[in-house]
Design brief:
The radius of gyration is 21 Å and the shape is globular. The protein is 53% helix and 9% strand. It has one domain (5-60, 132-302). It is mostly helical. Strand 2 and strand 3 form a beta hairpin. The strands form three sheets. It has a two-stranded parallel sheet. It has a two-stranded antiparallel ribbon with strand order 2-3. A two-stranded antiparallel ribbon has the order 5-6.
């Protein structure tokens, strides 16, 4: 039997208190959302205070405006994340119990849904204030990977969204019966899995964050509206699609003959391969990212 890493058991709650017989707790996942939004707000303020980064040395909004944009984005990410989860991952459950979509404490958020919610909120805010949409989107794109990184770290602490079984020495034994159950015929009695949450935190979060800020501060991409927005769409879509190959398929799509959770099967029998829901939802992001980059390049040639 190989030696594997043990899951570091961290309490999912940062702290809990009893108040009038009710237990109130702050969970790491909620803290990740809060820290990501606040960190993103301060990052956008930082960019607004540096006029030289923007076309004509004129930022798209004043340094106090991101605080107002933040309130719109909070509503967008919560509403979009919850509705996206209901639509993409558990439509049957929510159709039978529509009020369940309001019970946020039961868990269930979709990144792609939350991202769509942020897009809608940003578009509506720009229309209401007259701010240039592409430039505001570029600023938001610079800080978005921070929230992704923190969210994936919270997934890891919660011991959820773990990876596929692996025999590699960095495989991790996650808690829970589902995580410890491997497909029939697995050659090791221990079901270690890829710590795919950490892969995602590194690729979709830290790496993409560094790339975005280097392009913004070092190479002046904020002077070309739409470029950084396109790079974020493309970078996230590619990173998510790649790491889905190491991540256990979402439980809604896992079956005995389809243990990796493919929702689109290509081919038949043992040689068949397919796309997970995460990959299906990331493909449009890749295409949108390429479209933004092409659009930005055409605008520059026509200028």
């Amino acid at each position: 039997m190989s030696a594997y890493l043990s899951f570091p058991r961290i309490d999912p709650a940062v702290f809990s208190i009893e108040l009038f017989g009710v237990t109130l707790s702050l969970r790491w996942y909620a803290l990740a959302y809060i820290a990501g939004l606040l960190g993103g707000w301060r990052g956008v303020v930082f960019l607004m205070r540096r006029p030289g980064l923007w076309p004509g040395s004129v930022p798209p909004m004043t340094p106090d405006a991101p605080e107002r944009l933040l309130s719109w984005m909070v509503l967008g990410v919560v509403a979009g994340g919850r509705l996206g989860y209901a639509l993409f991952y558990a439509p049957g459950h929510f159709l039978s119990d529509p009020l369940a979509v309001l019970r946020l404490w039961e868990g269930g958020m979709s990144f792609h849904g939350g991202f769509l919610g942020v897009i809608v909120a940003t578009v509506l805010w720009c229309r209401a204030t007259g701010a240039p949409l592409l430039q505001v989107a570029d600023a938001v794109a610079c800080v978005a990977p921070l929230g992704l990184m923190l969210g994936r770290l919270a997934n890891f602490i919660n011991g959820e969204l773990w990876g596929r079984p692996t025999l590699q020495p960095w495989g991790m034994v996650f808690p829970g019966a589902a995580a410890r159950t491997c497909p029939p015929g697995w050659p090791d009695p221990v079901c270690a899995r890829h710590p795919s949450q950490l892969y995602e935190a590194a690729a979709e979060g830290l790496l993409l964050l560094v790339v975005m800020w280097v392009l913004a501060l070092r190479f002046g991409w904020l002077r070309h509206p739409g470029r950084l927005t396109g790079m974020f769409f493309l970078g996230y879509g590619l990173a998510r699609s790649l790491i889905e190959n190491f991540r256990q398929g979402d439980a809604q799509f896992v079956t005995a003959d389809n243990p990796w959770g493919h929702v689109i099967r290509l081919g038949h029998g043992a040689e068949a391969w397919g796309l997970t829901m995460g990959q299906v939802l990331s493909l449009p992001m890749i295409l949108i990212g390429i479209g933004f980059l092409i659009h930005a390049a055409r605008r520059e040639r026509g200028a």
